[in-house]
Amino acid sequence: MKKKKNEHEIDLKSWFFKFKTKWYLFAISATLALAAAYVYVKTSPRIYAFQSTLLLGDQQTGSKKAQELLEVLDVQSRGIKVEDEVSLLQSAEMVKQALRNLDFTVSYYKVTDHWLNNISELVVEEQYETAPYEVDLDTTSNQLVDVPIYVRPIDEQTYEIRMEAENVPLYDFGTHATVESLPVVKMTKRLKYGEAYKDKYMSFTLNRNKEEDLARGREYYFVINSLNSQVKQQQAALEVAPWDREARVLVFKSQGTIPDKQVAFLNTLMAEYVANDLKEKNQNGLKTLEFIDGQLATLSDSLRQSKQQLSAFRSNNRIANINVQSNISYEKLSQLEAEKAKLTTDRSYYANILDQVQNGNGIAQSVSPTVSGIQSPLLNNLFLQLAELNQQKAGYQENATQDNPIFRKLDGQIASTRSAIEANIQNLIQSSDISIKNLDRRIAEIEATLASLPENERKLMDLQSESQFIDKKYDFLLEKRSEAAIALATNATDKKIVDHASMVGNGPVNKKPKMIYLLALMIGLAIPAGFIVLMNSADTTVQGKEDLGNITNIPFLGVVAHGTRKDKLAVLNNQRSAIAESFRSIRINLQYLMADNSFKVIGVTSSISGEGKTFCSVNLSSEMALSGKRVVLIESDMRKPTFSKYFPVSETSGLSSYLTQGQPLDEIIQKSPVENLDIIPCGFIPENALHLLESPKMQELVNELKERYDFVVIDTPPIGFVSEYFVLMRHMDVNLYVVKHKYTDRNLLTQINELHASRKVKNLYMIINDVNYNKTYEYGYKRKAHYYYA
């Protein structure tokens, strides 16, 4: 099978011709596309682009004084990440803070006076600070949000309000939350300007703006926006990014339909961010002061203790002059040892008393501390209280049970008093232990002093050094506290608005009518072009001579022009027609190709029915007869005879009667309206046409006709349906295979290609039938020859 020389080569002229033949598709598509572009330009809101810049400053938060102080105190500082700041600026909470400072709760719209609005509300204009009326919203009441509420002026004092929607949120502006969702809301009411409207779903007052024109009969509407819907809208339009990879300058980009509204939002967002930064830094300054105050409180205690220790060291060691210390050391040593002995005896007594109290031996109820040798007024009072409580309890035991409230109260008081006595005695024991330890230390110190008097002098110097260090550190923190307080009072943010918001360019970014119309035109032309290309790719029928040459190696003989159903015998009825000229060309080409061969029998077939096989055989035979040749045309398709559409033939006498009944040849040959052309029709339809055609009588018929006529033309059945053609091939000198332009499928040529490749068919030629020159690029040049035809 022949292939294209270059399968990727595109024949632009051929495609232009195909597009030209479908010019009406391009016209319709382009018109619709331009109409859609017009509607888009008129109905879509104008969207403008805005930009502003903000400097993050250095990577430190808080005041510089506070940062320096934290560095001195060895506290790790906290830096800024640009990505974190970008996320913060785009966060819902940051956008909410900005929106709370702006009056975007109610959006106003006007349905303009445009012819498109006669179809639907397509051309709508948002009004910001130019609306002819103002809605005073009662935010303490619930409101229906995010749905249009229509306003139609009636006269100078009256207007009509109308709303009809489904799944409407009922919103609480106090908590900024949806209370419920109403499945259907339908409302119509007339009110006067300035008259409050209130029901369980809405509460507002509509005031007329006298500075703006409120056209009567014109339709307006407003939308009460929930905070969440505003946040989503602004977040979707907001983009924050660093100027470049290493910069700390942030670029804010946003889009919106109202320039003043979007500029106000961007400026407010940046202002809120800067204000929050200053607030955070002030909080850091306050935390710094709290930290210093805590350190000062700790150092104050340490300083007081160090001074007390120094004073106590001097006092305890009675160091006024280290040289005279040795003179009194021995006297002190004997006194201290006597004191230690007394304290040891007292402590043993305290421990004994405590053991008796804790073990419940009764001494706590009867022993008085004074009598027992304990000189403590507090402990003495506690023993007296315990004794009195025990007496009261003993008095109640005779008449009251254990469940008596008074009895339980006395038990509680007794237990509390015993606990106080135990704690007091433990304190005395701990005090004795401390005193004993103190005496031990003092005795050891005196002994050490006696052993080495210079050691006291060294300890005294250590205590003095420690006291001086704490004193200097305390003074340092006092100084830094004063600096931090001054820095807090003069604190300022290091974030700065570089460029306030402004509009980018001089017009909307989404509406460029010339570009939109051009794009629409290109789309309008591309759609039919793509459709034609797609249909051409999906079309598997034979498109012309070149296409036929790509799918078969069978020689090409000629084309037959397109005609009407009236052109059955075109070569006879209109010899100057394009069809008649086509058959003349085929006859001449056939005679030229077979000039060196003596051919008599010509077979005409096709793939399937409807390709014009019989039409070609009839007109080719007529053309050969008109050229002066004696021609006989045999209708061998005895399954579906069609000669009756071309000639007045007998249906009882024909090829079938000759082959089955032995009817004489002269009786089956019939004259035609064409001079020199005789025909042998099918006759009656036999039961088995194949057996008749392969009988010896068929060979006899062909041989006898070859003697009588110059040419024998056999109209055979199509090879795609029946097998009669393969029986008749042996009788034919020339085989003509008819394919119909844009009708015959390429795949149907597989069988004839195989026959030709195996050389089972001799002298095989292809004819393309029904070619419309006006719709075929390959033969488009023949359109100019129409004046040669009648």
Automatic annotation (TrEMBL):
Protein name per the record: non-specific protein-tyrosine kinase
Domain Polysaccharide chain length determinant N-terminal positions: 9-102
Keyword Nuclease found: no
Annotated catalysed reactions: L-tyrosyl-[protein] + ATP = O-phospho-L-tyrosyl-[protein] + ADP + H(+)
Keywords noted in UniProt: ATP-binding, Cell inner membrane, Cell membrane, Kinase, Membrane, Nucleotide-binding, Transferase, Transmembrane, Transmembrane helix, Tyrosine-protein kinase
Membrane-crossing segments per the record: 21-41, 515-535
Pfam families given in the database record: AAA_31, Wzz
InterPro entries: AAA_dom (IPR025669), Bact_polysacc_biosynth/exp (IPR050445), LPS_length_determ_N (IPR003856), P-loop_NTPase (IPR027417), Wzc-like_C (IPR005702)
Cell compartments where the protein resides: Cell inner membrane
Membrane topology classification: Multi-pass membrane protein
Similarity section: Belongs to the CpsD/CapB family.
GO MF term list: ATP binding; identical protein binding; non-membrane spanning protein tyrosine kinase activity
Record-listed E.C. numbers: 2.7.10.2
SUPFAM superfamilies documented for this protein: P-loop containing nucleoside triphosphate hydrolases
Ranges where the AAA domain occurs: 600-719
Coiled-coil annotated residue ranges, if any: none
Top EC class, one word: transferase
PANTHER family: FERRIC ENTEROBACTIN TRANSPORT PROTEIN FEPE (PTHR32309:SF13), TYROSINE-PROTEIN KINASE (PTHR32309)
Keyword Phosphoprotein: no
GO cellular component, one term: plasma membrane
